[in-house]
Amino acid sequence: MTTTASAAMPAHATVRGAKGWFARAEAWLDDKGKGAWIAAMVLGFILFWPIGLALLAYMIWSKRMFNASCASRATSRHHGFRSSGNSAFDAYKADTLRRLEDEQGAFEAFLQRLREAKDKAEFDQFMEDRAKSARSEGDSAGA
After folding, report:
1. 67: part of which helix (H) or strand (E)?
2. Can you tell me the distance from the alpha carbon of 26 to that of 33, in angstroms, rounded to the nearest whole number?
3. Domain residues of the chain, as ranges?
4. Is 64 helix (H, G, I), strand (E, B) or coil?
5. What is the pTM of this model?
6. Closest Cα to residue 56, out of 27, 34, 28, 31?
7. What residues contact 82, with CB distance under 8 A and at least 6 apart?
8. Average model confidence (pLDDT) for the chain?
9. Phi, psi (deg, nearest 5) at residue 54
10. Which of 95, 107, 52, 97 is nearest to 77 (CA)?
11. CA dihedral 54, 47, 23, 53 (to 10 degrees)
């Protein structure tokens, strides 16, 4: 019976079977998490670099690099957080998170001001050097 069943199978069934191992491997890696995907990619690079490159491209193309773990952090940050059931703790947590976000914003603004001050200092130095070279060229041309 198995011979007649296999003889009756269409040609695309073997292609589907070939995809089956890939789908099983993909599901297994998904179950293990992002670390398993990264480990598989690193092993691919070690064994034969095009395999690692292909896995990296697949992970980026299929959004495996930026899956639920990144999305859940962004969602919890912008849409509140899961309640612990204790309203006092939840209020404390919300206040602490808000304070930390404010401090982060203030620090990022401070870093931006530092970058702008450094850029201005570098530009002022450039203009001063340019003026000196123009004066020295004027002095040498006049002599």
Report:
1. none
2. 11
3. 85-143
4. coil
5. 0.37
6. 34
7. 76
8. 78
9. -65, -40
10. 97
11. -10
DSSP structural state of residue 80: -
45: number of Cβ within 10 Å:
15
Distance, in Å, from the CA atom of 34 to the CA atom of 38, rounded to the nearest integer, reads: 6
Confidence (pLDDT) at 24: 86
The tokens for 135 are 């004066």
Query: What is the number of other CB atoms lying within 10 angstroms of the CB of residue 65?
Result: 15
Instruction: Print burial letters for 16-37: b (CB count within 10 Å at least 16), e (below 16).
Output: eeeeeeeeeeeeebeeeebeeb
Per-residue confidence (pLDDT) for residue 98, from 0 to 100: 93
Q: Please name the residues in contact with 65: beta carbons below 8 A apart, sequence gap of 6 or more.
A: 34, 37, 59
pLDDT of residue 18: 55
